[in-house]
Write a structure and sequence with these properties.
Elements: H1 11-17, H2 23-31, E1 35-43, E2 50-59, E3 62-72, H3 92-95, E4 101-111, H4 116-123, E5 132-141, E6 144-152, H5 154-157
Antiparallel strand pairs: 1-2, 2-3, 3-6, 4-5, 5-6
């Protein structure tokens, strides 16, 4: 599936998917209770030199958003060294508070059962047969790029 400049969806879902600010902060405003659970942190695979961090952002103990951060391993020792200290905190604590960081792009697409991310989320038990919207953004700090992919889980829209 192709990445889109704007999602073909309307209403409440559209406002979440196109949120320009922190999704974690919006969850706090709408549901009060937000928790970040780190699922995985480390090398993307044995063949890659990318570091990834995968989290589930929950509200009222329900999984709302899956987020995967990806940077070059070498950049963990320079521009993105702050990632190593995040722990259970939201990435928003870095992205929206550091004036040296800016977003390049924000793209959207549907994620269906053929997608590797879909299969990952299904294997973790966060989805069953649903179609998901995901978005991808590129962030820059000191010339180094961070990729962020966010999946909007069904519980977010079933409140």
């Amino acid at each position: 599936m192709s990445w889109l400049g704007s999602p073909a969806i309307k209403g409440h879902e559209f406002s979440w998917i196109t949120e320009e600010g922190s999704l974690t902060e919006r969850l706090k405003k709408e549901f009060n209770d937000v928790k970040v659970d780190v699922i995985y942190e480390g090398l993307a695979s044995e063949k890659e030199t990318d570091y990834i961090r995968e989290v589930i952002i929950k509200s009222c103990d329900k999984p709302m958003i899956f987020a995967q951060t990806r940077v070059k391993m070498i950049d963990l020792d320079s521009a993105w060294s702050c990632l190593k200290e995040l722990g259970q905190q939201s990435l928003a604590n870095i992205l929206f508070k550091d004036p040296k960081i800016f977003r390049h792009s924000l793209l959207y697409r549907l994620c269906d059962s053929d997608d590797i991310l879909y299969r990952r989320l299904k294997s973790l038990g966060y989805i069953h047969e649903e179609i998901l919207w995901i978005r991808k953004s590129k962030w820059e700090k000191d010339g180094k790029i961070l990729s962020l992919t966010e999946a909007f889980l069904p519980k977010l829209f079933n409140q």
